[in-house]
């Protein structure tokens, strides 16, 4: 378990440590208001408080982007998608709940995912396939010009039971 004691931040400010605080600082730097009053008490914002301080258009864009990427990962055909789904089936065996993946993405002003970062899915090829799928096509719209990056999304990667390994040609 991580230590939740405050750490010294930029300009000597005190900031709480821990995964949640680090994620909020990375997604919403200087906007989330994560400041500790003293070494004994750290003020950590709840998700609702953090969302109140994030512009609504950033949240809306993150939702659109998350939905677009979920669709991209669950539909389609080809070698990358097939391999990813096969690996996800193996990864999911014996688990009732799909494992979420926290993905940090950087998006160009044209809407392309130009970089992605996440914890390994278990092997180099699966990680490379996920990165390639995330960056294969532009997103439905570019990010707001004032939006900070990287965007942090929690994706649920699960095998699609209706996924057809060998798509049928329709005329």
TrEMBL record:
Q: Which UniProt keywords apply?
A: DNA-binding
Task: State the organism named in the record.
Answer: Pseudothauera rhizosphaerae
**GO molecular function ontology, one term from the record:** DNA binding
Classify the source by domain of life. Bacteria
Name of protein = YbaB/EbfC family DNA-binding protein
